[in-house]
Amino acid sequence: MYNLPNILTISRIVVIPVIFLAIYIHSALWSILAGVLFVMASITDYLDGYFARSRNQNSVLGRLLDPIADKLLVVSALLIIVANQMVNPITYIPVIIIMCREVLVSGMREFLAEFRVGMPVTRLAKWKTACQMTAISMILLQRLYLIGDVVGFIGEWLLWIAGILTFVTGYQYFEKCIDYIYTVENNKKNPVKTVEQEVIKIAEKVKNAVSEKVKQQVQKGKSNDGAVKPAQNKKPAKKKVKRPVKKNVTKATVAEK
């Protein structure tokens, strides 16, 4: 539990109240501090996954807290931006889209988890997250000296791009969820399809198990290639066959008979 990836994930949750204070402390210095903390927290979002994979430190706690920490961080930063009026009112549209999408996807994942159906993260969703984090960081840092206005302007445009990508990925997840619900409802009406799908699932499990066993045997065979093999060309030693001993028949013996 207390490995480096989990500590980085927990740090994103701990830093949220500090960033949230920027709503009440109206100063350029505190706004810049909130932006710097958000940038550092966004970097830990990449580092915790990297260390978890490289060090083989995947844990149940990490899988639980990682999406929660990301959503809390993004929603808190968006509330700061709106409360401090750091963007034009028209830019509230992508802010609302992003917040609604987070609630929608969380609800769908919770629903599909009851049926043990996962919703893997797509590549477009990863681009959306990167664009979203960059946009929020630049908006929070718009009070920097000299370059603040340019940074804020670019960040606002990136937030619009993130809003569009958020809408597209949210629709993709929603479509997958609706397709699954439609499939389940059809299977209830046609039990033959349900049995067929169960057989397919069992066949896939057997196939995966057999392929894994074959891989293990292949790896085991490769590891034994360097071992010294016993000589196979030696002929087995011949066993000595005992011949029966012939008794000498004498004349006296014949007479006795």
What is the total number of structural domains?
1
Overall 3D shape = globular
What is the end-to-end distance?
A: 99 Å
Structural class: mainly alpha
Helix count from the secondary structure assignment: 9
Classify the helix fraction into a percent range: over 70%
Low-confidence stretches: 227-233, 249-257
By oligomeric state, this entry counts as: single chain
Which CATH top level class fits? Mainly Alpha
Q: What is the CATH topology descriptor?
A: Four Helix Bundle (Hemerythrin (Met), subunit A)
Question: What is the level-2 CATH architecture name?
Answer: Up-down Bundle
In sequence order, what are the helices and strands, one letter per element?
A: HHHHHHHHH
CATH superfamily: CDP-alcohol phosphotransferase transmembrane (TM) domain
Q: Main beta sheet, described? A: none
What is the strand tally? 0
Overall radius of gyration: 35 Å
Name the average pLDDT: 79
Note the beta-strand portion: under 5%
Structure, explained:
By secondary structure, this protein is mainly alpha-helical. The protein has a single domain (4-204), classed as CDP-alcohol phosphotransferase transmembrane (TM) domain (Four Helix Bundle (Hemerythrin (Met), subunit A), Up-down Bundle), CATH 1.20.120. Helices cover 73% and strands 0% of the residues. It is built from nine helices and no strands. The chain has helices at 4-14, 16-20, 28-54, 60-83, 92-113, 123-140, 148-189, 191-223, 251-256. The longest helix has 42 residues, at 148-189.
